[in-house]
Amino acid sequence: MPTADFETYDYDVIIIGAGGSGLRAAIEAKERGLRVALVCKSLLGKAHTVMAEGGMAAAMGHVWPEDNWQVHFRDTMRGGKMLNNWRMAQIHAMEAPDRVYELERWGALFDRTKDGRITQRDFGGHRYARLAHVGDRTGLELIRTLQQKVVSMGTDVFMETKILRLLPDPEGRISGAVGYKRPTGEMVLFTAKAFVLATGSIGKSWKYTSNSWESVGDGHAMAIWAGADVIDMECVQFHPTGMVWPLSVRGILVTEGVRGDGGVLRNSDGKRFMFDYVAPMFRAETAETEEEADAWYDDHINYRRTPDLLPRDEVARAINSEVKAGRGTPHGGVYLDIASRRTPEYIRRRLPSMYHQFMELAGVDITAGPMEVGPTCHYMMGGVRVDAETQAATVPGLFAIGEVSGGMHGANRLGGNSLSDLIVFGRRAGLGASDFAEGRAGTPSVDPAAVAAVIDEAFAPFGREDGYNPYDVHEELQETMQALVGIIRTGPELEEALTKLEELKEHTAKVQVKGGRAYNPGWNLATDLPSMITTSIAVAQGALNRKESRGGHTREDYPGPDPEMGKINFVQRQTVEHGYLAPIGIEPEPLPVMPPELAALFEEAK
Amino acid sequence: MTDTQTGTGTPAATADAADTTNATVTMRVWRGDDGGGEFTDYVMPAVEGEVVLDVIHRIQATDAPDLACRWNCKAGKCGSCSAEINGLPRLMCMTRMDTLPAGEAVTVAPMKTFPIIRDLVTDVSFNYEVAKTIPAFEPGPEPEGGYRMMQIDVERGQEFRKCIECFMCQDVCHVIRDHEDNKPKYAGPRFFIRFAELEMHPLDVNDRRELAHDRGLGMCNITKCCTEVCPEHIKITDNGIIPMKERVVDARYDPVAWLGRKITGRSKKTAEEASAG
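The joint structure predicted for all components is written out below.
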């Protein structure tokens, strides 16, 4: 079969993904006067960022003047169990307030304090009320603001276009990206001087997830196939509160804002069980009684915070333990109760989307009774190893931001730190990619044979007879990851998962697709499977090697943290062969060392 | 004529044995492209608590792997899965099967106002083209210590910014649903509330009243169809379109208001200035 035709587009900077970080990067590169295009799998404005509910963390000090970047930095590092890239955490804490004010200058309408400033909400792991927000739809406000800005700048956007593979020039600089347009199935080649990955998460490899179909790890996988380093792939966040019933909506997120605004977790005996799960690291600043916890909402100075707002990994494990001990709800979760603690008017005003979601999907009125919640696969801390200042990957011409990048959040992300991550590092990647593009001489070129090979591989499933159904392979992958690489892991199960993933890799190479190329979801899924296989293998390999429990990574056979393991990242890369069929190497490398003045912040806190 | 297929596969991804009964549901789904199409019946096992999108996904996983539909968040937040369910524009992810008449086939058709791409997917680029013509938000000079706005003042705009761009208000609006030739001169309800949002933004200095008029605000005869289908329950007509109509009248026809603006030196730019800027 001859290789299909393809269209070619040339730009200075191509940004793959149009969620919050991709849009923010595009604005920065566009302001430089460069030729910029955004390429995204969905329609503009539909990216996963719209799902973010609670807010964006920035130490503006509008509610608690005691707050500052040092406190935010310390909270972030401790939340990440000190596995974070300290410099990224520092940049993030220092620059987040400016990025939030900037959104306001671009038209965002945040909720206000009584004196007319941007108000801030309490969230897990943040010492002070720190999250700028718009009710419980902050992600929508962020994406709409940036989308409208991008559109007003006249930026080119290729919607419903999926990139399959990144290609280098003869000097090894990333110079091309091959993909297809979903509505027509036509193939496209983008050439550019710099490429920014803003492709989001990997959560669609799990059965119960808050992620959409887009979160298949395209960027993580394409970076690995391009020879770039990825780190911390074992660090996957399971959000403690997803819906558990009805089954069809299991996994859909229930914002942490419910707890920030006064909601508490209870087991089937009605007990507020979180008081029993306060790890030593957090004891000094956590309330010991319900009275103290309740007083804290109004007085953060004289009272300590409620354990309902411990970092997400702590809460998710606690819920898991309660359910395992037989104190769960009829549908296998725990209760999240705000109805008995706040007025219906307050709940509807502060949490309108949650009210709506439970009313329409579960027939539950959250102003009258408790919600049933349990952990759901939510966020990927691990990703492409990047330079903290520029977000440059270890392969020249490639940049990564947001969930596809690693390091910022360490072993566990604090709620509210993802939206601020997107805008802080989106801007920096836009600057970094622009600098690189401006400094790069010559016209980017790629090997035509390599382009042809990507196209042939993409079309191969149409030509097969008696192949595997891509939906079946995907379902089997989700069952495998859910059962064997979930919230609690063991060595033997991870080995079993890797064996199973090898088998599914073979099946992926033999999937069969029916129908034509135009808007064919079966084919689209077939082209997603290689990304899911690669990222799932990387997660399982990382999890098998990290023989300790830290943040989002919990090993039943190594239940505590190991101080030696706390000093290393597991770095994974493909050095010889590339692609989803090739093995991925893994080795430990020491974490960057924090300078003494920052390390001192952790001494003071003790 | 409809073609009937019986779902044979086990329900994928969502069904545990306890939630499956012997009951079935019949989904009458429009299949085709811009060259034409027809409804096809799929008889699927009924599963407790499902929404329409769940059943569509099960059809894809078993009987029709190439059945095209848009979706993303499956939580009513992204506005991708708009379709006409039993003749009414709805989000497939927020329409529970048990709220539809039992024992009857559920028809699922693409939005009528936009050109078909395939099956349930339509070409909504009309909306993205309109969005490009709207002058950007432009705040006045920033005072020392940052902007101040009161909650009560931001709430008016926040109502419109709840919009998830599902485009069902555009789909149901008969000005363009039944009159293709109106599209070039009509922005539609989604963008009338965008004008309203900017017009009511405490910081924005552009004047969009003339532009709203030019983009067909006057063609809307306030039948409130858009408000009825809005999944975010935005009062598109009462809080957006009608106040905008009043402001446009003020701007164009009221000499006293015109004189008042001259005297008080209202800071909003005219549409022409805004478009040029």
